[in-house]
Write a structure and sequence with these properties.
The chain has about 230 residues and is an alpha+beta fold. It has one domain (about 5-210): Distorted Sandwich (Coagulation Factor XIII, Chain A, domain 1), CATH 2.70.50. Helices cover about 10% and strands about 30% of the residues. It has helices spanning about 5-15, 50-55, 140-145, 210; strands at about 20-25, 30, 35, 65-70, 75-80, 105-110, 125-130, 150-155, 160-170, 180-190. The longest helix has 13 residues, at about 5-15. The structure holds 2-acetamido-2-deoxy-beta-D-glucopyranose and copper (II) ion. 2-acetamido-2-deoxy-beta-D-glucopyranose binds near residues 65, 67, 113, 187 and 189.
């Protein structure tokens, strides 16, 4: 192990805590009742674990499913746990600290009932911030610069119905990579005729090579794991 990565690791796991997605917003309104709160701040590292669907304990339903008008903006928000749960985590205690660099991705899947789905569904990647060559371009850093929030606008044309939203920060500072995941339950209303395309399954979507990436090299080139981001055409 290189000296540099050892330092990074010590920072990551002793000085700072792990993080969880612990708030959810619909058009700016805090709607935590629709978030499946994970049972631990520990990440998922086992590529065969069903926890890769909605995080540890994430099969447990939230208090309700949020009605979300097609075209609305939803946001998933992360904070270090334990830590400062302020609306905008401060720079000295960011949403995900300790140089937990990695991509941030948002997936969604259509389900019969978001309140009871186990998350064993067809997941479509709808948003992603990965890495474009500078430290500040890591998805996790973009997240920190945005108060821990990753937003996604539900396409106006998306078919109405129940969906799970899955947010993931994949920290690559140490190996194996650490997935911090949580899901929210939504009921899209007033939508159109666009259906999600075929997606991927969790577990199963990622390979060990993809999540055990050594990022502490110069001229790093990096592509986030999973499918390409899907965008509705209308
Ligand atoms: C979703 O919203 C529709 C339209 O308001 C409603 O008829 C339906 O009961 C809702 N379903 C769930 C599971 O909340
Ligand atoms: Cu960690």
């Amino acid at each position: 192990m290189k000296y540099y990565s050892l330092i990074a690791l010590l920072f990551a796991e002793t000085v700072y805590s792990h993080a969880t997605w612990n708030n959810f917003f619909v058009d700016g309104k805090a709607s935590k009742e629709c978030l499946r709160v994970v049972s631990t701040n520990s990440p998922t590292t086992n590529l065969a674990s069903p926890d890769l669907r909605c995080g540890p304990g994430g099969a447990k339903p939230a208090a309700s499913s949020c009605a979300v008008k097609a075209g609305s903006k939803i946001e998933m928000q992360m904070h270090q746990q334990p830590g400062d749960l302020s609306a905008c985590p401060p720079k000295n205690n960011p949403a995900i600290g300790g140089r937990h660099f990695g991509p941030v991705m948002v997936y969604m899947c259509e389900v019969a009932d978001a309140a009871t789905s186990s998350g064993d569904c067809s997941w479509v990647k709808v948003a992603e911030d990965a890495y474009t060559g500078t430290e500040s371009s890591w998805g996790t850093e973009v997240l920190n610069n945005n108060c821990g929030k990753r937003a996604y606008t539900i396409p106006k044309s998306l078919k109405s119905g129940n969906y799970l939203i899955r947010a993931e920060a994949l920290a690559l500072h140490s190996q194996p990579g650490q997935s911090y995941i949580a899901c929210s339950q939504i009921n899209v209303t007033g939508g159109g005729s666009t259906k999600l395309p075929a997606g991927v399954k969790f577990p199963g979507a990622y390979t060990a090579t993809e999540v055990n990436k050594n990022i502490w090299v110069s001229n790093l080139k990096y592509t986030a794991p999973g499918p390409k981001v899907w965008a509705a055409t209308a």
